[in-house]
Write a structure and sequence with these properties.
0% strand; 134 residues; 76% helix; single chain; mainly alpha
């Protein structure tokens, strides 16, 4: 199996950039809420602050491994369609989950977003194993 030149990554970096941009408002909402409610550290026993923290933290907990899986798929030669579908699932899933957990939108966004994210954790490893073991 010949490994392509890593400089040829063209799709995954798009989704990594979008995730980086998405992370900014998640983080800023916490900072602004802290300043407005004088919460220096932790959640200050404030239920809204707790949800904001968990929305950001869940992003931080789930995105890195999913990005590694996408990168590995691209390095191994996954087609553009695979990569765009997986990247869109990740970005969309993380956005929906955040909207649901922080109550910016309906609660249903949270499980839909988590399902989208977890689908990457199921599909990508299967694709990778099938490619490597073939």
């Amino acid at each position: 199996m010949e490994m392509p030149n890593i400089n040829l990554l063209s799709i995954t970096p798009i989704y990594i950039a979008l995730l980086g941009i998405l992370f900014i408002p998640f983080t800023m909402r916490i900072g602004f809420y802290r300043m407005g409610n004088k919460i220096d550290l932790g959640d200050g026993d404030d239920p809204k602050m707790f949800k904001l923290i968990r929305g950001q933290a869940n992003f931080v907990e789930t995105v890195p491994l999913a990005v590694v899986l996408l990168l590995l798929m691209e390095i191994l030669g996954a087609g553009d369609t695979w990569l765009h579908v997986m990247g869109a699932l990740l970005v969309g899933g993380r956005f929906l989950h955040y909207v649901g957990i922080t109550e910016l939108g309906p609660f249903i966004c949270r499980p839909v977003g988590m399902f989208a994210t977890l689908s990457i954790y199921l599909i990508a490893p299967i694709w990778i194993l099938m490619d490597v073991l073939a």
